[in-house]
Amino acid sequence: MLKALExxxxxxxxxxxxxxxxxxxxxxxxxxxxxxxxxxxxxxxxVSQVELEGGDGAGELIxxxxxxxxxxxxxxxxxxxxxxxxxxxxxxxxxxxxxxxEIAETSAAEPAGAGPAS
Length: 118
Prior knowledge:
The chain is α+β, with helices and mostly antiparallel strands. It folds into two domains: 1-69, 2-Layer Sandwich (hypothetical protein PF0899 fold), CATH 3.30.2320.20; 70-111, no CATH class. Helices cover 33% and strands 19% of the residues. Strands 2-1-3 form a three-stranded mixed β-sheet. Strands 4-5 form a two-stranded antiparallel ribbon. A hairpin with a 6-residue loop joins β4 and β5 (79-80). The longest helix is centred in the C-terminal third of the chain and has 16 residues, at 94-109. The protein is elongated, with a radius of gyration of 19 Å. The model has no long low-confidence stretch (mean pLDDT 90).
């Protein structure tokens, strides 16, 4: 994985790993494991997107790196096709919008002057 990301950096395809979209091809045994943890893979690999493709059946993991789709989130720097969907926070991705909304909701629910204890 790191070798493929570094090759993409060297060829100026990406400047950093968060600009990457990784495409993984694997045999059926490994693809089941990758599918099970697919939502964790971008964070694990420190990339913006991971897509699973069918493998060649030879037992090898095939790794390809492309430039990530979408725009860069101003808060987390991940690339997402959903940046700009929120009229309230147009420069944030869907994950950051949810996080900021939760923080705002929690802050609004706290009684006045109920900050952290000193």
